[in-house]
Amino acid sequence: MGYFYLIIAIIGEVVGTLSLKSSNGFTAITPSVLVIIGYGIAFYFMILSMKTIPVGITYAIWSGVGIAAVTFISSIKFGEKPDIFALIGLSFIIIGIIILVSFSKMEAKIS
Q1: ∠ CA 86-23-42 to the nearest 5 degrees?
Q2: Of 35, 54, 55, 110, which sees the most CB atoms within 10 A?
Q3: What does the longest C-alpha to C-alpha distance in the chain come to?
Q4: Angle 22-46-21 from CA coordinates, rounded to 5°
Q5: pLDDT digits over 24-52, tens only?
Q6: Quick check: 66 and 55 in contact, CB under 8 A?
Q7: What is the rounded distance in angstroms from the CA atom of residue 83 to the CA atom of residue 71?
Q8: Phi, psi (5° rounding) for residue 105?
């Protein structure tokens, strides 16, 4: 269930982050509410995922996949096209996450 919760957390973070741009400094009501709800969902489900996934792996996946998703969606929604260096950097982030998840022997400790 940890990775399922993490997917929900990533979706919440992406919704919250994309809504930040539309909130106009929290002056537009609907996007501002989406920011609060999105980040609330993100942090709640991230907490749940950390019960079974180590914090380092949870955060690496959450932030890395979130960065890639926000970059991809903002290129479509806002026309913010990443250049070759951005794409190379995003590739390194994704490769790093794959290495971390595939080869790390970290285990979650429940306290």
Answers
A1: 70
A2: 35
A3: 46
A4: 10
A5: 999 999 999 999 999 999 999 999 999 99
A6: no
A7: 11
A8: -105, 15
How many C-beta atoms lie closer than 10 Å to residue 110's C-beta?
Answer: 6
The CA distance from 88 to 67, in Å, is: 13
| Contact of 10 with 45, CB cutoff 8 Å | no
Q: Which two tokens stand for residue 70?
A: 């926000």
Specify the number of domains making up the chain: 1
- On whether residue 111 sits in a domain, the answer given is no
Which value, to the nearest 10 degrees, does the dihedral of the CA atoms of residues 74, 77, 78, 81 take?
A: 50
Tell me the residue range of the domain where 83 lies. Answer: 2-103
